[in-house]
Amino acid sequence: MQDFAKSFSLAAGLVLEADPALVEIVVLSLKVTATALCFSALIGLPLGAILAIARFPGRGFLVIASNALMGLPPVVVGLTVYMLLSNAGPFGVLKLLYTPTAMVIAQAILITPIIIALTRQVIADLNQDYADTFRSMVVPAHTAIVALLWDARFSLLTVLLAGFGRAIAEVGAVMIVGGNINHVTRVMTTAIALETSKGELAMALALGMILLCIAFAVNAAVGLLKNAEGRLVNA
Description:
Elements: H1 2-16, H2 20-53, H3 59-68, H4 74-85, H5 100-136, H6 141-151, H7 153-168, H8 172-178, H9 188-198, H10 201-234
Helix pairs in contact: 1-10, 2-5, 2-6, 2-7, 3-5, 4-5, 4-8, 5-6, 5-7, 5-8, 7-10, 9-10
């Protein structure tokens, strides 16, 4: 018990003193996840909205696929990206394996189906209120999509936060494609796994504390956005 108490004390010290190694890992984690989220948002938000209001052959399959891929196993994503980016793969010439870019790709693949599926549901529900108005005014589909995305902005921000929380807590895929290289691809989750296996509990606990704080911050932001949306609707 004394060893655990000492580890917690050392971990708190690392956080309060902003240990350079700790800060480096946290900053890289945030950069990788934020970049992956941006790419996923650019793809997932419009695709989700299109699936919500458009009708075309194969739409049902795409809806089912996006819902099913929300549970995509991270290690499968990691293995797939590894095979694509390895020297023997089709994109090996780009030399992206074991770089932050590879980690961004893996995280983006993981969270894009989540953003597509949740966006589709949000926009489909909202479209029920606007469908008759759009039809009576002969609003083009692309204009309707833009209008619905804007009107659902608060709900969609919660979708993006859900994607962010999923990505930053991921370990399997980024471990495979990033290699957990010190000062290059070591992020919070992979560092926690490594430090724990080494018995260096202080750094692992410090990173765990920060990861928990980020998780709480994301959930708090979701709650605030929902409250803001409620006040906007009732105004």
